Amino acid sequence: MNNWIIIAAALAYLILLFLIAWYAEKRQKSGRSLINNGYVYALSLAVYCTAWTYYGSVGRASTHGLEFLTIYLGPTIMCAAFWPVLRKIIRICKTQRINSIADFISTRYGKNFSIASLVTISCVVGIIPYIAIQLKAISASFELLSAGNNPQASPVNDTTFYVTIALTLFIIFFGTRSVDASEKHEGLVAAIAAESVVKFLAFIAAGIFITYGIFNGAGDIFSRAMERKELQHLFTLGGEGAGPSSWLSTLVLSMFAIIFLPRQFQVGVVENLREVHLKKAIWLFPLYLFAINIFVLPIAIGGMLLGTGSDADMYVLSIPLAHGQQWLSLFIFIGGFSAATGMIIVETIALSTMVSNNLVIPLLLSRSLSVGSQGSLQTTILWVRRISILLILLIAYAYDKAVAEQFSLVSIGLVSFAAVAQLVPALLGGIYWKEASKAGAIAGLVTGFLIWTITLVIPSMVNAGLLPDAIMQEGIFGQGWLRPYSLMGLKGLDPITHSLFWSLSLNTLVFTLTSMYTRRSVQETYQAEIFTDIFEQSRYADNKVVWKGNASVRDLKGLLQTFLGEERAEKILVNYANRHKIDLAVKRADPRLTNFTEKILSGVIGSASAHIMVTSVAKAEELGIEEVVNMLRESQQIIELNKELRKKSSELAKAGEQLQAANSQLREMDAMKDEFLYTVTHELRTPLTSIRALAEIVHDNPDLPDEQQQHYLGAIVKETERLSHLITQVLNLERYESGRQKLHMSSVNLTQLIRDVADATLPLIKEKQVELKLHLPDSMLLVECDKDLVSQVIYNLLSNAIKFTPEEGSISITTRHNYDEVQVWVADTGKGIPEDLHELIFDKFFQARNQTLTKPQGSGLGLAICKKIVELHQGKIWVESKPGLGSTFIFTLPSTKTFFLNG
Amino acid sequence: MNPNRKQQQYIILFVALLLLFNFPLLSIYNKASLVNKVPLLYRYVFLAWLASILLLFAITETRKEKERRDE
């Protein structure tokens, strides 16, 4: 294919990225962020998939079978730890305004320069080869694609160089806009997410073409390979580099890499907008890895079957090309280009921030520490970052030309992973172990990187011809125990596993032991508390004060102006002061302001530099270690106490409410009791008065005629009966209300019961000359109830009806039934009851209290008793009536056990 | 619901995945044979992988409903 077409396509692609980034920044400024969602976050994490994934996986699979998957299974496993671990790291970085992994470690261990620069140098040394292989992949794919039409060697070298320069410009434009490195690069993240989509689509397109276009699906590829003895080993794991130990070691390496590689830290932590975006990434990101890897093995084996003869790393591109698919090949080339550029862009930004903040700026500041005198440092810082970006890319380019040519993509990538793994003990120890100290971290890191250098870097230098071969056989300086591939005589492991075993175990051991036996400075102790308890601390971190010094507001403002420019510094300060009600007019700065200034500066120049800058103007007295610890403890205790107090007071309030409710209920009941007593005694007195009057008549007139005497005595007996009836009723009612009445449930034939009660009232009916009609079914109507009590209800209702029905009137009793209840209707043709009394008549002594209306007939307790009994049976009782039209009393009994027996 | 519950689920899954994607469990399927034209190991790893993604999804997203109700 013509070179110019390829170059034009690559350039067009970069311009597209540029437009996406530009659009995203525009949206950010207008407040409608394009990337403020979990999907973009998950896609940006996929910057993990570089040219290594795109080209290298196939190459690796063609020699080691499924072993390449460890690089993607590790991150999948780590996704399960995202919520517990990564969220904690994100929270720490947000509250502390941390902008790189070196800054993270240095902030944890007391905002210290030496450790920050150590981490920075190790990262740069470890990662530059990794960037170089991305450049290598770009140039190799370009070479392959252009050689199709152009057998003569093309100016490839220059092309890689131009790509390097184009990328540099792109990164400088979008990565170093603002001096505040902890500020989000939304345009960049949007571009990275777009790249993840492009490389995914291109790789899947290649996979589909090779698997289904050239072969008849993956099954076809697999079964053909099964027939070839030399390919069978690709279906299993084993042998050099793919045994259990190397499987485990690459798995562990990739687990660490997914969080702690500088570029992953950049997109996963620094560029993270909201913690909740993690939730989408936890399952979406492994899904992406899963999908992009499905076709790797089919492509690798397919390439072996076809025997194209080209480098297996390039099968993805070379197979479609060999089958004449020019445009598909160009698309695949762009996919690989996007995988490589995505990695280069993010990695370079992360590294350049680290280099400028931790190596260059400290040097600049140490030369002129007097603040305010050197004017604005903003542009200086930006230029430092831009130049570091250029340098990093140029070194990577040089490395690519000099060394990387000789290695496969994967082997160099793994060396970088192994370098990053050295940060893990200090990092994880830092967020979970309070005793971890700066001395321990430095000792561990140095040990780890030293072993990494011996076991992985030196062999690669020997391979590149920079060091004599003898080192590999005889050991460094001729020391037998220092052989790079068999340290201390340990043999039988592949180089990566061997290196990882020694470096990580000794790193951890030295780190923990040194930490245990060294003292920590005040600043370290303070940071250790914050890092390990971030979820507790971040709630009040803003108000916590560890500055005892005497900073003046003017000095702090000067500091901010130096690094942010006048306008922004003013804006930030005033905003903060307004939010926390701090007076900026006073001379001596509020300690919170000092703290805030340090935090803002951390975002710009890293925590170590920021700390030194602020200390220089605050003239802080060093706090005692006890003082700091007490401060932290105290505020924590206060929070605990507050929580406890709030809980207690809400409990108290609840108890108070309950008491009040109980009290008013008691009052009500007391009033009811008074009223009840009043009415009962009143009711009792009426018959007593008449008994007394009658008895006095008989007593005072001994010569009354017998007949009359008999009459009076009869009246006395009747009144006493009424009296004892009343007392029985009062006692009954009291029993029902107090709940002492037990129901003696049995199956009762309700029709029979009604007939019996009706028979018992026959004398009354005859006396009153009313008609009683019974509308009862012929069958049995069985209800589970207390026979005596229910018959009392029916009796009371019936006798009431008789009482209030005028002569010649009629009374009817009807039963109705449905699924869950039986109704008994007792209807009369009396004078009816006004609607507003329908509920009141079931009250105790309602009649008695309304004696003005009618002459009392009965005790006034009958209906109240009926109501109680029906309620005891979980039934209902009510009245339907209109004045002048008679009334109907209806009560129901639940009838789960009701059934009919045809009699 | 106890907020630590989710943490525990994640940690259990983390340990389970470490075991699932490692020797000696892998050696059960480490045979050069095809089932329905798909290599045994390839099939196992990809199915286990898909299952683990589903579990991650389940732990992460089911909690959301409850949170929403809590709010």
Description:
The complex is a heterodimer of chains A (903) and B (71). Chain A is mostly helical. Helices cover 68% and strands 5% of the residues of chain A. Chain A contains 35 helices and 8 strands. In chain A, strands 2-4-5-7-6 form a 5-stranded mixed beta sheet. A 3-stranded antiparallel beta sheet of chain A has the order 1-3-8. In chain A, helix 7 (113-147) runs parallel beside helix 20 and helix 23 (522-532) packs across helix 29. The model of chain A is unreliable at 149-155, 370-374, 851-856 and 897-903 (pLDDT under 50). With 71 residues, chain B is mainly alpha-helical. Chain B has 3 helices and 2 strands; from the N terminus they run ααββα. Chain B has helices spanning 4-20, 25-28, 40-70; strands spanning 34-35, 38-39. In chain B, helix 1 packs antiparallel against helix 3 (40-70). Chain B is elongated.
Jot down its keywords:
heterodimer, A: 903 residues, mainly alpha, 5-stranded mixed β-sheet, 3-stranded antiparallel β-sheet, 35 helices, B: 71 residues, two-stranded antiparallel sheet, 3 helices, 73% helix
Spans of chain B of at least 5 consecutive residues whose pLDDT stays below 50 are none
The level of helicity of chain A is 55-70%
Main interface by residue count = A-B, 35 and 37 residues
Largest sheet of chain B: 2 strands, antiparallel
Quick recap of the structure?
By secondary structure, chain A is mainly alpha-helical. Residues 149-155, 370-374, 851-856 and 897-903 of chain A have low confidence and may be disordered.
Topology readout:
The complex is a heterodimer of chains A (903) and B (71).
Chain A: H1 3-29, H2 38-45, H3 51-64, H4 70-79, H5 82-96, H6 101-108, H7 113-147, H8 156-175, H9 186-214, H10 217-227, H11 244-260, H12 262-270, H13 277-293, H14 296-306, H15 315-322, H16 326-367, H17 378-402, H18 409-421, H19 424-432, H20 438-463, H21 470-474, H22 495-516, H23 522-532, H24 534-537, H25 553-564, H26 566-580, H27 591-605, H28 607-618, H29 625-700, H30 706-738, E1 745-749, H31 750-760, H32 762-768, E2 771-775, E3 780-786, H33 787-804, E4 810-817, E5 821-827, H34 846-849, H35 862-872, E6 877-881, E7 887-894, E8 899-901
Helix pairs in contact in A: 1-8, 1-9, 1-16, 2-9, 2-13, 3-14, 3-16, 4-11, 4-13, 6-7, 7-8, 7-16, 7-17, 7-18, 7-20, 8-16, 8-17, 9-15, 9-16, 10-14, 11-12, 11-18, 11-22, 12-16, 15-16, 16-17, 18-22, 20-22, 23-29, 25-26, 25-27, 27-28, 29-30, 30-35, 31-33, 33-35
Chain B: H1 4-20, H2 25-28, E1 34-35, E2 38-39, H3 40-70
Antiparallel strand pairs in B: 1-2
Helix pairs in contact in B: 1-3
